[in-house]
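Technical appendix A lists one of the benchmark inputs used to test multi-chain prediction within the project. The record comprises two sequence entries:
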Amino acid sequence: MLMIHCPFCGPRGEHEFGFGDQAGIVRPSLSASDDEWADYLFVRDNHAGLQRERWVHAGGCRQWFFIDRDTITHAIHGTFAFADAREPGE
Amino acid sequence: MRRSAAGGYRLPTGGAIDRSRPIGFSFNGRALRGFSGDTLASALLANGIRIIGRSFKYHRPRGIVAAGVEESNGLADLGDGGWRTPNLRATEIELVEGLSARSVNCWPSPGFDVGGLNRWLAPFLAAGFYYKTFMWPSWRLFEGAIRRAAGLGRAPDREDPDRYLTRFAHCDLLVVGGGPAGLAAAAAAVAGGGTIILVEQDSITGGRLLWDEAMIDGLGSAAWLERTRAALARAPNLTVLNRTTAAGYFDHNELLCIERAAGHGQSRERLWRIHARKVILATGTLERPLLFAGNDRPGVMLAGAVRQYLERYAVAPGRRAVLFTNNDDAYRTAHALVRAGVEVAALVDTRPSPPAGVVEAARAAVDSFIPGGRIVATGGAGALASVRVVDAGGRSHAFAADLLAMSGGFDPVVHLFSQSGGRLAFDEALGLFRPDVHVQENCSVGGAAGDLGLASSLIAGHRTGAEASGVPAGAAPRAHEQAPEITPCWEPSGAPGHAFLDFQNDVTAGDVALAVRENFASVEHLKRYTTLGMGPDQGKTANVGAIGLLAALTGRSISETGTTRFRFPFTPVAFGTIAGSARGNLLAPLRHLPCHDWHEQRAARFEELGGWMRPVAYPRAGETEEEAARREARAVRTGVGLFDASPLGKIEVRGPDAGLFLDRLYANAMSRLKVGRTRYGIMLNEQGVIIDDGVVARLADDRFLVGTSSSGAGRIFSWMEEWHQCEWPSLEVLLTSVTSGWAVATLSGPKARETLARAHPSIALERADFPHMHYREGEVCGIPARVARVSFTGELTFEVAVPARRGRELWDGLAEAGGTSLSPVGTLAWNLLRLEKGYFHVGGDTDGTTSPFDIGWTRLLEREVHFVGLRSLLRANDLREDRHQLVGLRPLADGPLPIGAQVGRRGRQSEGYVTSSAFSPTLDRVVALGMVRSGHARLGEKLEILHPAGLGQAQIVALDSLDPEGTRLDA
């Protein structure tokens, strides 16, 4: 089980959190082509290595925030409130 | 040998057993006696019981091989009924008064076993036998019989009556293993002041110092252990957990540890989930068997285990022994046997010239010393009676013996290290796999690191413990004992078909050779093809020997051959332990309605729906639930019904942007809703699929009360939060879930208004003052209330919400106001009423593909707001004319119209299916909804109903069968 440092509540067990996909996926406008829209809905990088993700502290403060997580080792390199987010690896 | 008066195998003196506390127990119904401090295994050996059970495939007799966690032969079932626990290791069961154990995998008894006939079939039951034999005509033909014959102990046949709890713990340092290295580590680390947990799977710390004499800091084993334990007990920052096995090593340094209850005689366990900043793995070693023909016969044991039985339990596992070894350690066993008065007939060493230091003493102690020799066969009817040896010169010798102590070297217990992601390396000199590169914050010390010497293990443990807690190392405990010299030995002696690698699963050296011949030469393939190490052994005693043999057979090095990956759990864990308290009613705590007792008093039948215990119906004496539901539904159509709608999701959305926020989340506009009005809405996901529906009321300019379905209450609240926080954080809205804050009573039926009027409302109820789809605040029965005119039934309806704690007052007031014309209504009738009216149910009539177009909402594209799901509705697939669309289905004959039945024409592809169906007492026929291809354009068309129960006919009709003009609703 991962130990996740919620930026608002501090370290908590993974079972309190919900995973919300790869971060930084931009919602296209209504005029997006079908292909662009399909990319937004279904296509993810599935990156092996460091990735920024959205998580929610569902069993706590209910805030969404970023986690920089290594998808291979599960090592967490940082957690950020949206307002404090820097680029991954900075 | 020194014998006890009973003439058994118990030594008259010595050991850590308490002879003043005898214990009565039974094995396969036979009454036996042991002592406090015994394990089931030591007590059985003391009673001369040598055959404990039968092997998995050939049903060969099996006896105790080991003394600890690695025992794969001595399995037993304990307890009865719900307390029955199968396949426990006899070496780990502490003896308690009244303990009742049974053999596994044999019938009628371990001595005479019918399944043992398989032994005569052994030549035909080679590796891959099942895969090769039961292919034609179909595996399924044979599966039943094979499954009945397979399996070990018997599973409990009743629910486990015990409770299990999970403990969460966090510490700075977790030390796994309380042997010399682990104790030294903990003792050095306590000075750092951080929190430390030490787990030991045995009933007491000490590891092999519990039976091996040594000098540490000038003290003998027992005195040093006593001093060290006392020092640790004084440390306020250290917790020692005995009888606790670290069974799993997971991400972020979390270990699952299983603590067994002491003195229970059952396997009741507690799960510890321990998060540690650092972990010291001091898990020691397991002794490796030697590979020779007949090595599975009861009486053949590991040499270290024999020493443990002698020194710790004061049991001599035999009367005349032979030793077979490739290392120095077994010589200690020879001397321990001699000290106990057991005759050592022969000591056979695979090494042609063992170190002089051990040879001299051995020659004096044993009858025959045979360096460079091999055991090639064993004999005996059932248990061991004789051993045949070939010496370095090729001469054959036979010895009568009832005990054969073997040692093929030692394997570090790297299971946890491997689970943690660490990489192993093969040490050619010692012939063992040891930890190489670690991934998580852990460090292996002592035997677990491949360090087999006591002196060096103590130093490494001490230094690592001090480092882990950041204190100066100081002086480590001093000992002189060095690592034993070992010459690895991989190839079998004697007939390979009788040289067992995995005793419990009956995998022999011959099976490995066969697998290699058939090209299952990868270690992962070998494991699965032969089942090696897949049973109770789980890569403990069988693993490395098999890899060594595989390497020899394939001409590769052992490093090239590699190991299989070790997985959780290290030892078996009961399901109950993993589940903990998350069982039965505690799995997901049930929620009760504010007026649960009111419903109970009216004989409601309850069912769990979306986590709530809800009344399904209120049957009278002699009524079925269905009959009650029809009566209740009729009452709503003719009088008035009272339905408990409290579980409906309620979310307050407040703030200047509340209207805009809802405009974006709903497929229909909400911002133009006037204060005091309500509107029905549906919500889509980004794929344009309907995910929920409900009624929204506008309480004020900047305040909405959003109603969701009962099952959507939590889901939709999370959905709203996610959109607000992640996509539109600039919108000024505040979301509050108030679902359980309100008790909601729904009065529905032509007499709803007159009933509510008698309940002292402060609100004008006439149609002109309070029309359909309007919202009012005031008082009902003297309670502050929110009242909405919304209808799920098609009848005149008032939905009255009061603070939950005053729900009972409201129900009593409304029941009094309604008198005899009021009927409580359950969910079954409620569902029937909405179906008569043609209202659909999200998730029942719709599924994960249903778009708003499919339910007849065609004007959404005219909206200007980019609401969630809109873009997906513009895709070609969503705009197809021939999608499945929601329609009413009217049966034309008396045939069935069951939910799930396909509709279309016989022999052709299905054109849809029935989604809801029930008998309507008001219409005196079945009413049904269904999804039908291009259904909206096919009203009036007739279709066949295809179902295993028979064929029927139905006509496609409009949704609302009852009161299509809505005059009842709008009354």
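The CA atoms of residues 51 and 69 of chain A lie 5 Å apart. The two ends of chain A are 26 Å apart (CA to CA). Comparable benchmark entries are summarised in Table A2.
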